Amino acid sequence: MLRMDKNDHAAIQAVLAGDKEAYGALVVRHSHILFRVAYRITGNEADADDVVQEAFLRGYRKLAGFESRANFGTWIYRIAVHCALDKVKHRKGDEANLAGQVGDSNDPELDQLQVADHGAGPDRILLSGEIRSMQEAALHSLTATERTAFVLRHMEDRTTAEIGAALGIEPNAAKQAVFRAVQKLRRRLAPLRVAT
Amino acid sequence: MHLTEEEMIGQVYGEGENAAAVERHLEDCRECADAFAELQRDLADVNAGVNRVATPERDAHYGERVWAAIADSLPVYAREKRHWWSSGLSKGLSYATACALLVACAFYAGRLWEQRKQLQTPIAKQAPAPQQTKQQPIVVVVLDDHLDRSERFLVQLKHADLDSSAMAFPMREEARSLLAANKICRKNAAAKDDPELTTALDHLDSLLADAANEPGGLNAQSIARLQDEMNRDGVLFEVRVLRSRVAHRGGTGETPAKGGTI
After folding, report:
1. Do A155 and B50 touch (CB under 8 A)?
2. Of A103, A133, B62, B153, which residue is most buried, by most CB within 10 angstroms?
3. pLDDT in tens, B82-121
């Protein structure tokens, strides 16, 4: 997915030689992948756009330290994950509010009743939408690291070693972050099992 | 003993620490097997849920828009200038430092080599003669030179004007220089078990020591005493005999190498 293109190296050399415009080719080539992971981590289009721009800005500033043997795609992807993580951390207040909207009563019984109540409605599509909202809210209720680790594992199909590298933590710590995310999500979404 | 949730999650991801044992346990324990199946369903639901949240599409010109948004805020990498200062100059300095170190090392090594050479020469002369034949010409030349200088000194001493002090200082300096060389020649002679040479050099050593270390420097009185000593021991005669012997040995056997050092 993140193959190193020979053109990437050529573009990097050109940029370092003073050709700023060559960086544009790298931006065009990798923007979509960065937007996708940024959106999956932040869950917000505007934030994801900001993350993409910030990642490329940081990448440009650090380009002189980029090792020629490394893969630019992987490198800028990690930077984007960091940027997205920062964005989510800074948005903690909003996150807490969002989590509070659905299923944040810390009372599984109450959550179960709420969903069961919705399920009693005639429109099955509405229930489906409600479940999706709960799942999104459950995802947002995780810490920034847990959420990012979970997204990278379940949506980006990254190994724990890759997640650790992207988050700047040990692989075992990355594995524990994924495990904690799964445990929390299960508890959050337990009421859905009764509803469905 | 049942499996923990963490062990089961690890098993789902294929990252458990003891996958085979967990697998066996799941086959034997119905309760854990049910819990494991429930976990798998939950994860499938979560996956289905998060994957249902479609990532918004960005058109083909998205990258160009990102570039347009950030391009103006990016400085140009001035590589040539940077290269000249940070790379070129540092390389130049590195080379200069390396050259300086090399020269210093060569100088130091040369000094060491000279010192070792000077120390090794007398040691070599103490070794058994058959194995040192190649070094013998150097010894002969040194001894010959030493005897030549000593003879001239003794002749000068013999005919020294007792009323003039003009030659007193140069003679004492020459005596000190000869004394140092004579010690080495004595050692060599002792090592070669040459009693005639050793005795002669002993007499010469005594005379040179008196001349070199005369308190207050050489004067008419001390020169007279040295002349008496020289005549009593026949030092000049011994030196001349030795010179002829050494010259004969050098002319018949070895090829003297002029310029050799002690």
Report:
1. yes
2. A103
3. 444 555 556 667 778 887 888 887 888 888 887 776 666 6
Q: Do A154 and B42 touch (CB under 8 A)?
A: no
Dihedral (CA of A33, A39, A45, A51) sign: negative
Best B7, B12, B58 residue to mutate vs chain A (most A CBs within 10 Å): B58
Same domain, A35 and A20: yes
Residues A58 and A137 in one domain: no
CB B160 within 8 A of CB B223: yes
Residue with tokens 């993140």, as numbered in its chain: A2
How far A135 CA lies from chain B's nearest CA (Å)? Answer: 6
Chain B within 8 Å of A82 (Cβ-Cβ)?
A: no
**Which structural domain, as residue segments, surrounds residue B108?**
80-126
pTM, to two decimals? 0.50
Q: Does any domain span residue A114?
A: yes
B50 neighbourhood in chain A, CB within 8 Å: 40, 135-136, 139, 151, 154-155
The span from the CA of B183 to the CA of B105, in Å, is 33
**Nearest CA-CA partner of A43 in A156, A140, A157, A152:** A140
- What CATH number is associated with residue A42? 1.10.1740.10
Interface touch B55/A40, C-beta < 8 Å: yes
Report the complex ipTM: 0.74
| Three-class DSSP category at B189 | helix
Q: Is residue A184 within 8 angstroms of chain B, CB to CB? A: no
Distance between B103 CA and the closest CA of chain A, angstroms: 35
Domain that holds residue A20: 6-90
- Please indicate, yes or no, if residue A70 is contained in any of the structural domains: yes
